[in-house]
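Researcher: For the annotation table, I need structure tokens for Polysaccharide deacetylase family protein. Please keep the output clean. Sequence:
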Amino acid sequence: MKTWELLHEVDTQRKEIALTFDDGPCPIYTPQIVSLLAEVSGKGTFFMIGEEMEAHSDVVRSVVDAGHEIGNHTFSHPALTNLSVEQCRAELERTDALIHELTGRRPLVFRPPYMAYNEEVGNISLEAGYRAIGAVNGEARDWDQPGVGHIVEKSMETTRSGSILLFHDGWGDRSQTVEAVGVLLRAWSEQGYRFVTVSELLADR
Ligand SMILES: [Zn+2]
């Protein structure tokens, strides 16, 4: 694997997976996800949009206070592959600075909006010090609201130790996602999985 490529899973012996939540923070759905994670003593990674962070900075702080990781999901959610190098860097840097300002920490992980990604975007994110993160359960398409059963089934069948899972807690009606994540967390918990942040998963290899 080339260093700039998206990381979808980690090779690990530990029974750990990393749930990720894109497009927040959202005052309605983000706290519901945080509550579900608390019920299973799990941690998650929230790939936040800069514009939404400015609008809901209190939600950002509550996510960090609960022990979760914040990742960079750009400032205005463009397809980075359509931007110039300068515009792409600006999207990452502006969000990086905002995360630092609101949480006191620099983000370590990045996810490109729409998974629009190529070598150029990859190298920009590497230069900025990020690990670029994909996911194994793209077919779950939770952003399309395909039904709770579909999200659960497609996420279950692609998951094994070291998997990174994609869900959405912002930018639309995410009630199906919240319901599906509740079902999945209980099922995976019963199977013995632990829920860690992406950075923890990377550190545990
Ligand atoms: Zn997104």
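Researcher: And a one-line annotation?
Model: Strands lie at 16-22, 45-48, 69-72, 109-110, 131-132, 164-168, 194-195.
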